[in-house]
Specification:
Shape: globular
Largest sheet: 7 strands, mixed
Number of helices: 7
Strand content: 25-35%
Bound molecules: zinc ion
Strand order of the largest sheet: 6-5-4-3-2-1-14
Distance between the termini: 21 Å
Length: 253
């Protein structure tokens, strides 16, 4: 069976739990497909298991890591194990795009004794713009303590923007200008005294979507201790059509 997304761009939610895996979802991981090309956006804790229920890991063509917090990158380790020992991997090195320093950090995650993972991955530092398979890629630095980049993927006239982790950010709004779909984190509950430049509230995710003029807002990255219905309701105060993602959901962009 050919992968989905041959004509349009298809987004599948592999994991959407914020800050770590939750009881009903792995941490951050999204599969984006177009024309048979399969790109993973983030590979957070717990996501490699969920991925196997949705796509054969051998069919992944590239991995993009928004940043190197555990809930966005830890399951690179089981992917390395799969590639080295399953006997099924293609033998091709997998392009892995991530902020500078990923090669060293992910080797530590795998505890490879300092040995690089370059037999599995072809590492590339996050570009401002690039072509990746059938996608035109643009990125923007977000407002987050770790170096994090939001990404805009465009193919076949459709555009998807994923915020990664961010506080309110003009750069992210600009990146999302008139996108078809904005997949936006909303990790912070609505309350006073929140640390700046870390995460969005639901309302702030809605405000970003409205300011960018996107067609559709998908709210994600809600931590297990935050009420997702409250995050969605808050997002809808600024963007009435906002939707809450759930694991396994697919969206044609
Ligand atoms: Zn983070």
């Amino acid at each position: 069976m050919r992968p989905a997304g041959e004509r349009g761009v298809r987004l599948t939610v592999v994991g959407c739990s914020g800050s770590g895996p939750g009881p009903t979802s792995a941490a951050s991981c999204y599969l984006v497909e177009h024309d048979g090309f399969r790109l993973l956006l983030d590979l957070g804790s717990g996501a490699f298991g969920a991925l196997q229920a949705l796509a054969d890991p051998d069919t992944i063509d590239a991995v993009y890591l928004s940043h190197l917090h555990a809930d966005h990158c830890l399951d690179v380790a089981p992917l390395v194990v799969w590639h080295r020992y399953s006997g099924r991997a293609s033998g091709h090195r997998l392009p892995l795009i991530a902020p500078a320093g990923a090669e060293r950090r992910l080797a530590l995650v795998y505890d490879s004794g300092g040995a690089p993972l370059t037999d599995v991955f072809d590492f590339a530092v996050t570009p401002v713009s690039a072509i990746l398979g059938p996608f035109t890629v643009q990125t923007a630095r977000t407002a987050h303590p770790a170096e994090c980049h939001a990404i805009r993927l465009t193919a076949h006239g459709s555009s998807l923007v994923y915020t990664g982790d961010t506080g309110p950010s003009r750069a992210v709004v600009d990146l999302a200008h008139r996108a078809d779909v904005l997949l936006a984190e909303a990790a912070h509950p609505e309350r006073d005294g929140l640390p700046p430049d870390l995460h969005l509230t639901g309302r702030q995710a809605g405000e970003a979507a409205a300011a960018a003029g996107v067609r559709r807002l998908l709210v994600t990255h809600v931590p297990p201790w935050v009420d997702p219905a409250a995050q969605l309701a808050a997002a809808r105060t600024a963007f009435p059509g906002a939707e809450l993602v759930h694991p396994g959901a697919t969206y044609d962009v």
